[in-house]
Each structure stands twice: as structure tokens, then as C-alpha cells.
Amino acid sequence: MWVIIASMSTILIVLLLVVGAVLATSVALGRAAYEVESVRDTEYLELEGTWVRYNVIGGGPPVLLVHGWLSSSRVWEQLAPRLAQRFTVYTLDLTGFGESDKPLSGYGVRNGSRLLYAFCAHFGLTRTGVIAHDLGGAMAVKLAADHPDVVGRLVLVATPADDDQIDLPTPLWLATLPVLGPIFYTLGRLAQPVRQLWMRPFVADPRDLPEEVVEDAGRSTPAAASQTLGISRREISRGRLARQARIIKIPLFLVAGEEDQIVDPQAVGAWASNVDQAEVCLLDECGHLPMIERTAEFNAQVLAFLTGDARYLDHAEAPSEAEAEVGYAEDSEADALARDGEATQPPDLTAPPEETSGLSSQPTDPDDFEPEPREERPNVIRKWGGSYSSGDGEAAPERSDATSGDGTEDKQTPRSRPRRTSPDEDVIPQLPEDLFDWPEPRGEFRRERPRATFPEERGDDTDEPEDPSRR
To answer: I need a labelling partner for 10 at 20 to 30 A (CA). Which of 1, 28, 204, 347 fits?
Structure first.
């Protein structure tokens, strides 16, 4: 009997020691931080007490690109040079990710918004076009609500409007647990196959998952990864941020993949219902990373929104794999258009737009302004009165490369899905001197409805926008 009791006591002591060692290791890993060493003045800024890596390319009106959770500015490597042909493009690694500092605290939507504001203030950016992904989109919404003079146009890509719209795969969810999460996250940092399990659900097709995305998922710290997600989920819970977005009066473009397994694609409806000037773009056969999975079409949609020129969409589709195998990928645009029966010559986008073009100079009298009827926008769906339809209330026209107006997939004409290969260099139309000074650049998407304040909905848990006069 005494032998059995002694054996059980020994086993219990060993178990307690193992549990204690695991907890101590978890606490130590959870308090790990990272500081940038050998800072280069041309690539780093000290903002909000941390060193932040950034990059600036191009020239023209400013556009700021904001990445999401477990990511970095490298997610914009396809879009940034495309925009840089007409815009000054600013990218940065948010605190806790990429090559920026990773402190023990200071994460979430509110702190991220303050970081973005400090970044814009450093460069003197106003009326800036902001393109943001995932939780970075929530930070951009907060920035636009608190500082309406800073953001001129806003593009939200796969951005959740509520915490229940976020669904993580089990291997990644384990890495965010309060106690054991640091151990699971450290395991993922050391083992690439574990990181691949994390990031596989982020794309609809495994072939579209680049190594850079898998690598960036392991470049954070347990504290940065778990706190950014946990604090952000609390800050957007119960639609707090979506309600605050009601004060945003700038054009809003919402992009989501129909097969997104990380953020519910229906989140676009929550954002669109709270903003007057909102467009919704649903991409079929696309997951959580449209800028990588559907590079050509995503870039064209963003450029069309920023410039107001739908001609970008004429060259949105990249050559398919089958065409590339037979040499079609090297054809000129004129040959491609002639082969499709659309035209014998591509439009001259370098020439100044005609007077009826969407880029023409605005009339002297705003009352005389009549927007040009726009060409069909592939994959763009407007939401009116709770249903998706065309702007005039009729069903959206049938499209071979998009969902139908009722949100169902068009089965009549199968489309060749473009791969992740970057599109050929195409010509960019001229822009007005002041990109964001158009009175009604995309007025056909604005829904007229009375606006009102919602003091009873804000309550104590709603962040009130800052008074610009105090700055």
C-alpha cells in the first residue's frame, strides 16, 4: 500500500513539475518582444514610441496601403507598383508585424488607427486614398471616422464588421489561446508545415498561397499576434465600429471573396448599410486574399474606383494558363482584343479623355453636371434596399465572369479564372490635377436617404470621433 501511495505521489509531483514548466515557458514566450536594430533613416520612422518600417514609391495623389493580421506590407507587392504609375504609394508594416517593432502592448483597432494617423501626419497626407485589408481595414475605418480630413477614399478588403464574422482554422486558433497560445505560436514559427496549416484556409486554391504569406505569418510574436486579434475583436464586437462608420461621408469600396473562410463575405453588407456612398465587389472563386488570388482583376477594380474610369476594367483579365501554354500570354493587347471579337485595336488610354468621359473636367455650374452612363462593371454589385441589384432597381445584367445580380453564380458561361501571374503592363489614362476634388465622381452609387444621429446607439462602448478643431 505504501509503495502504491509513494508511486502515485511521485507521478503527481512529476506532472506538477511538467505543468509548471509548460506554464513558465508559455509566460516567457508570451512576454517576448522585438526591437528593430540598425535602423535606416530612409526605411524606418519612430511613431507612437515604436520603430515602423515603411516605403514610398511613385508620384501623384497619395494612396496608403494597410495590411492585415499576421501579414506585412509585402502582401501589396503586386498592387503597389501598379498604383505607383499614377499615385504616390505609401506602405508600412504595422506595429507587431513584418519588420517593425513588436512591443508587449499597444495593439488593437484604436492603437492601429493612432499609428496610421501619426504616419499620415508625418508626411502631411490629407484626403488620402486608403486601401486596407482584414483588421487593417477596421483601423482605416476608425481613422476615417476620427479624422475625416485625412481619408479621401476608402477601400476595405475582406474586413470584418463584427467579431462573430471572424472564423480561424483550429491550428491557428490554438496559437491565440491565452495560456498555451504562445507555445503553439512558437511551434508555428519554427516549423513551416505548421504555418502552412495556418494559412491554407486563407486562399480558395492552394496554388495561390505564396511563400511570402506563409513566412510573414511567423514573423510576429505571440503577444503581438494574440493581442492584436483579441483586442480588435472586442473593439468591433456588437457592431461598435460599424455604427461609428455612419459618420463617414467619403466614397467606400468593399471587396470580398465569395469563398473567404476567414472573414464572412456578408460583412460587406454591414459596412454598405452604414455608409451612403458604398460599392460592393464580390469575387467568385476567391478567398481571403483577393490581391494575391485575383491580382489582375483586383488591381483593375481598385484603379477604376480611385480614378473613376471604368476603362481599367477592359484589361482586368490576365491570360489563362491554357492560353499561356500556347503563347497567348505574349500576344499584344490588340491581338487579344481582336481574338475576342471586342475590337480590332485597343482604346488609346494615353489620349486625353473626351468631354463625355468620366475623367473630363467638371462643369462650372455643379447643377449642370450629368454623370456619364458607365459601362458594365464586372463583379461589381450594388446593394439597394437589402438586396443586390443594379443602380436603377432592375436586375443586374448577365455576366459571364461574375456572379449574377441576385448573388448566385452564373453557370451559363464558364470563365477562365486568371492565375496569380501579374498582368502585362498596360497604359494608364490621364488623371485630373486634383483626384479627390470631383463633386459627384460616382454619383450613381450614392443612395439618398435621410441621415440622423444615433446617440442612443453609441452609448459608453462606442468610440466618439475626435473633434478636428482640437487638433
So the answer is: 28
pTM (two decimals): 0.67
Q: Is the dihedral of CA 423, 352, 382, 147 positive or negative?
A: positive
Instruction: Report yes or no: 243 and 462 within 8 Å, Cβ to Cβ.
Output: yes
44-355+375-438 placed in CATH 3.40.50.2300:
no
Query: What tens digit of pLDDT does each residue of 321-351 get?
Result: 433 343 333 343 434 433 343 333 333 433 3
In what order do the strands lie in the sheet containing 128-133? 44-47, 50-58, 88-92, 62-66, 128-133, 151-157, 252-257, 278-283, 380-384, 387-389
Bridge partners, 63 (sequence order) = 89, 129
Alpha carbon distance 154, 255 (integer Å)? 11
| Closest to 183 measured CA to CA, from 16, 23, 20 | 23
256: three-class secondary structure by DSSP = strand
CA gap 309, 357 in Å, rounded: 8
Question: Is a pLDDT exceeding 70 seen at residue 224?
Answer: yes
Q: Report d(CA 204, CA 286) in Å as an integer.
A: 6
The three grid cell numbers given for residue 58, joined into one nine-digit string: 511613385
- As given in the structure block, the three cell numbers for residue 35 are 526591437
